[in-house]
Give the backbone structure.
Amino acid sequence: MLDQIHDLYDEMEKRRVMLSFKGNLTSELVSALLGLVENKMEAIEPDPRTRKRVFNVLMECLQNLYHHTGPQPGSSSTEPNGVVMIAHQDQGYSVLTGNFIVGSDVDKLKGHMDRINALPPDQLREFYRETLADGKYSTNGGGGLGMIEIARKSGGKLEYGFVPYDQHNAFFSLNVNVTS
């Protein structure tokens, strides 16, 4: 077992994984993860603008996980459950997240993501302002602003996917690349 752990650690080091987490999310844990990444970024990233962009993307991603994730299907826990990984790439950083969503929300979220990905930066900024001004917020308070902000801060397209889990749930994955 110990050899498997060392092999996994070596593989993560080769892939330059800065953080990998899977489990229940609490507000305290989200704060701790942000602090860990902030400290790690201070040590490895010389450009303060890149550090800030990566941190802001991670913060939005973690907030989305915390506020818009239900418990893992079949689990007795009521805590939001998710996956997050940050890897240092040759051209920047990759922030990957994953969480369960209600299957009936897939089409709405897909439409929102596709709209965000179709907009150039100036129109994305305007879409953010329009969304903020329309006052339509979900029960979790977001109104779709988080994904728009992630796209704005990353400066790239949002890579995403949905995998059906059971008749009521799907697993949503998001990969955000932040170039340096």
The mean pLDDT is 86. The two ends are 37 Å apart (CA to CA). Strands lie at 17-24, 81-89, 92-102, 159-164, 169-179. The first strand starts at residue 17 and ends at 24.
